[in-house]
Amino acid sequence: MGHSGSRVALLSRVAVVALLAVLVVGGLLYYQLSREREAIEKLEVEVVGASIARLGLSSCDIAVRLRFTNPSGSDTPTFWVSPYYVYVNGELVAKGSLPPTRVAAGSSVYQDLTVSVEYSKVARTLVEAILRGELKVEVRGVIKARVLIGLLEVSVPFTSTYSVG
Fold first, then answer.
1. b/e map of 84-122 (b: 16 or more CB within 10 Å)?
2. Hey, is 88 helix, strand or coil?
3. Of 96, 73, 90, nearest to 136 (Cα)?
4. Domains along the chain?
5. pLDDT tens digits for 77-109?
6. Is omega for the bond preceding 77 within 30 degrees of 0, making it cis?
7. Is 0.90 surpassed by the pTM of this model?
């Protein structure tokens, strides 16, 4: 009887230790998930610059600068923007994706993109506005990241506008 009693006590202690280990690991994973998710959800995206980089006879290039600011207390996990859409004066002129990046806690990262606009593919009023240098550039997109050791995907939409002229 004494042998089986000590065996039960040992198994009980092992079960308690295993349960505590599961709770600790689960708590740490939840904490990590919360911090990564918060960093992505609080990430601020802003168009901080737009200009006509090249003005040609049949097309032009518009340079757009995006700033990603992380106001949270945690670094973001690696994220990417896919897709993004660029509108100039309300007209869709480009679609694309940005390469993966990260933003440290309390800092900003800039990404530049160049949009080529062929005059024959856009409305005449937009071409006239481009020639006058009067542009309202809007970028809409979706920030995507994999959190919790890459197990879950988080997606956050954004919109930002910048006026030129």
1. bebbbbeeebbeeebeeeebeeeeeeeeebebebebeeb
2. strand
3. 90
4. 35-164 (2.60.40.1820)
5. 999 998 999 999 999 999 999 999 999 999 999
6. no
7. no
